[in-house]
Amino acid sequence: MLGALTFLLTASVRRPSLVLALHVAAMEDSTLQSKPVYMNEIEFAARFGVSRRTAQRWRLTGEGPRWVRLGPRRVGYCPVECEAWAAANTVERDYPNKNAQQVPA
């Protein structure tokens, strides 16, 4: 850390534009890390094994995960929200097990 600080101080005396460029690059790097990465419709459909049309229908009916409009003809899905949606819609078992032994009442 001290070496980087010494370099910046030395560079600021000799070349102020270099320090500005380093500062801008550091700011851009930190903002890129905070932006979420979205899956497009095709990636979403492939990830969950459905067709694009099913993904579109889920969007229309509100059955699918939350999505973001990225442009007039482009939507995006946040992977974290998609996984949370899938976990919330996971059914353990909604039919009786035929091989399970019946407990007398």
Q: How would you briefly describe this protein structure?
A:
The protein has 105 residues and is mainly alpha-helical.
- Secondary structure: number of strands: 2
Secondary-structure element string = HHHHEEH
Q: Could you list the spans in which at least 5 consecutive residues all have pLDDT below 50? A: 5-13
- Side-by-side strand order of the widest sheet: 1-2
Q: Could you describe the 3D structure shown?
A:
With 105 residues, the protein is mainly α. It has a domain at 41-88. It is 57% helix and 7% strand. It has a two-stranded antiparallel ribbon. A hairpin with a 2-residue loop joins strand 1 (68-71) and strand 2 (74-76). Helix 3 (41-48) packs across helix 4. The radius of gyration is 25 Å and the shape is elongated.
Walk me through the topology.
Blueprint: H1 2-14, H2 16-34, H3 41-48, H4 52-61, E1 68-71, E2 74-76, H5 79-88
Antiparallel strand pairs: 1-2
Give short descriptive properties of this protein.
105 residues, mainly alpha, two-stranded antiparallel sheet, 5 helices, 7% strand, elongated
